[in-house]
Amino acid sequence: MSDLKVTNPVLSPQVSANVNFFNPNSVGCTIKNLSVDVSLSSIPLTTISFQNQHLPSNQEFSLPVSTSIPYSQLIKFIPLGISSLEGGKDIPLEVKGNVTVKKFLYKRTFPLEYHDVISTKDIQIK
Are 51 and 21 in contact (CB under 8 A)? Predict the structure, then answer.
């Protein structure tokens, strides 16, 4: 993940980032549907979904992702987020969901699970 940005933190928090992937296969395909739940510090924040994104063969690529976070979920995260920002601690990120890929007549849904940390040094609040 790169270029993590938070805009409108007071009115309506919008989070955007470029999510980096690598397709090791010799053929490209299309993401027909992707739906994932995103949690920070084990607190569910939002669901991200998109459809019909082409994946090039045998190369790295990034997909821009943008979502809004409901205040009801954000309020649960604020105390942990503030202490992480003040202390310079990394914030655990968890993404779980499903992705459906298609190539010609072949279509299959795979579970998706990703764990990482967000460095508080990389967060830009505007």
Answer: no
Could you give all domains of the chain from N- to C-terminal order, each with its CATH number?
2-125 (2.60.40.1820)
- For 58-108, write each residue's pLDDT tens digit: 999 888 888 888 888 888 887 888 788 788 889 899 999 999 999 989 999
22-59 pLDDT tens trace: 888 898 989 999 999 999 888 998 898 888 888 899 99
What is the value of pTM for the model shown? 0.74
CB 31 within 8 A of CB 55: yes
Separation of alpha carbons 68 and 93, rounded Å: 16
Which residue, chain included where needed, has tokens 């919008």? 14
Phi, psi of 90 (to 5 degrees): -70, 150
